[in-house]
Write a structure and sequence with these properties.
Helix content: 25-40%
Number of helices: 11
Shape: globular
Distance between the termini: 35 Å
Structural class: alpha+beta
Largest sheet: 6 strands, mixed
Order of helices and strands: EEEHEHEHHHEEEHEHEHHHEEEEEH
C-alpha cells in the first residue's frame, strides 16, 4: 500500500481508455476523516493547466475531501471547455462519494498538452462512479494509474509514533523546478491543521522536488497534494512531522531521478562552501542544466572543465580560481586547476556524485539531475501530437 497505509483513506485506479495502451489511467484518493485538512503546492510555471486553476481555488480552503488524477491527457491549453471538464469531474466525484461541496475535490491531470476534447471528458466523467465503487482501504492500484512515460511506480510509507505517512508519485521527464513534471499525493493520519501541513509541505518540497532538475524543462501540471485524516488521533509535534515529510519527499525525488527518461547516470551535484543556500542552489543548478556537462557524463568523461565553465555563468559569490571539483570521490580539480589524473576516476556506475567546493562560506545544497543520452532525445522526439 502507499496512500492507503495511513488510517482513514481509500483509493482506486482503473482504465477508462485515455491511454492507447489500455493501461490504468484514472485514480482517486478519498479522505474518510474524521478531519479534512490539506495543503497543496503547485507548479510555478505561468502556463498552467485547467486542473491547476481549479485546484488552486480548492486549496485556498485548506480543506479537501478527495483528489482525482488522470494520465493520458494534460487538459492544458484547452480553453473554457477544459476548465468545464475539470469542474464536471469534481462534481462527479463529489456526487459519487457523498461530498456536498465539489470545491473540496482536487483535480490533477498529466499527459500531452492540448489533449482534452469531448471524448476525453466523457471517459473521465462517465467512469467516476465505477472508479468510486472500486475504492478500497487496502488498494494497490492507484499508483499505476497516474504514470505516463514512467517505467515504475513510485511509492513510500513512513511510520511515526502512532501515525503514518503514505505517498505515491509519477514523473519521468520535464523534471525541473518549480517542482518537477510530476503529480504527488501524500496522505497522513496525523492530527494537524492546514497551516501546519502547509509549512511542512513547503519546507519538504523546497529541499527535494525543487532541487530535482533532470532536463531544465518545467511542466504545466505539477501538483503535490497533502491530505490529513486525523484518524490516528495522534498530534505529532510539528518538527517531527516536518522532518518525516521531508524524508518522504526526498525518497520520492530520488525515485523520480532514477526513472528519468533515457538516463544512464543519476547525478547528485553537491555544492559546499557557498556564501548562502541560494548561491549553493544556483551553482548546482547551473551544472545540472549544462548540456555539455551532461553529455560528458553520458560518455563517462569526468570533464571538470565543463563544471567550472558552467558555474562561472552564475551570480554566486566565489572565486572560480579557488574552486575544487571531485567526481565519485576523486578530486580532479584543485584551486581552479588540474589535480589528479582523469583516468583515476571511474564514471561507469550509474550513480554519479559531483562535489564542488566554493570556499566562500558554510552553506551546502545538493541538486539531482541526469545525463543527456540518445535515448532521451529519441523518447522525446517520439512523444508528440
Amino acid at each position: 500500500m502507499s496512500v492507503t497505509a495511513p488510517q482513514g483513506f481509500r483509493s482506486a485506479g482503473i482504465a477508462v481508455g485515455l491511454k492507447s495502451t489500455g493501461k490504468p489511467d484514472l485514480a482517486l484518493v478519498v479522505n474518510d476523516g474524521p478531519e479534512r485538512a490539506s495543503a497543496v503546492v503547485f507548479t510555478s510555471n505561468r502556463a498552467q493547466a485547467n486542473p491547476i486553476l481549479w485546484s488552486r481555488k480548492v486549496a485556498q480552503n485548506g480543506q479537501a475531501r478527495a483528489v482525482i488524477l488522470n494520465s493520458g491527457g494534460a487538459n492544458c491549453f484547452t480553453g473554457d471547455f477544459g476548465y468545464e471538464t475539470t469542474r464536471l469531474t469534481a462534481e462527479a466525484v463529489a456526487a459519487a462519494i457523498g461530498e456536498p461541496d465539489a470545491e473540496r475535490i482536487l483535480v490533477c491531470s498529466t499527459g500531452l498538452i492540448g489533449t482534452g476534447d469531448q471524448a476525453f471528458r466523457d471517459k473521465i466523467v462517465h467512469n467516476v462512479p465505477t472508479l468510486a465503487a472500486a475504492l478500497a482501504a487496502d488498494d494497490t492500484t492507484a499508483p499505476a494509474a497516474i504514470l505516463t512515460t514512467d517505467s515504475v511506480e513510485k511509492t513510500v510509507v513512513h511510520t511515526g509514533d502512532g501515525w503514518t505517512i503514505g505517498a505515491m508519485a509519477k514523473g519521468a521527464g520535464m523534471l525541473a523546478p518549480g517542482l518537477a513534471t510530476m503529480l504527488v499525493v501524500i496522505t497522513t493520519d496525523a492530527l494537524l491543521d492546514g497551516e501546519a501541513l502547509d509549512r511542512a509541505l513547503r519546507r519538504a518540497t523546497g529541499t527535494s522536488f525543487d532541487r530535482l532538475d533532470s532536463d531544465g524543462c518545467m511542466s504545466t501540471n505539477d501538483q503535490v497534494t497533502l491530505l490529513a485524516s486525523g484518524a490516528s488521533g495522534v498530534s505529532p509535534d510539528e518538527e517531527s512531522f516536518s522532518d518525516a515529510l521531508a524524508a518522504v519527499c526526498d525518497s520520492l525525488a530520488a525515485q523520480l531521478q532514477a526513472d528519468a527518461e533515457g538516463a544512464s547516470h543519476d547525478i547528485d551535484i553537491e555544492v559546499r562552501g557557498a556564501a548562502s543556500s541560494a548561491d549553493a542552489v544556483e551553482v548546482g543548478r547551473s551544472v545540472a542544466r549544462n548540456n555539455l556537462f551532461k553529455a560528458a557524463i553520458f560518455g563517462n568523461d569526468p570533464n571538470w572543465g565543463r563544471v567550472l565553465a558552467a558555474i562561472g555563468t552564475t551570480d554566486a559569490a566565489f572565486d572560480p580560481y579557488q574552486v575544487d571539483v571531485s567526481f565519485n570521490g576523486v578530486r580532479l580539480c584543485h584551486a581552479g586547476g588540474p589535480d589528479r589524473p582523469v583516468k583515476e576516476c571511474d564514471l561507469a556506475p550509474r550513480r554519479t556524485r559531483v562535489e564542488i567546493d566554493l570556499f566562500a562560506g558554510e552553506h551546502t545544497a545538493t541538486i539531482r539531475t541526469n545525463d543527456l543520452t540518445h535515448d532521451y532525445v529519441h523518447e522525446n522526439s517520439a512523444y508528440s501530437s
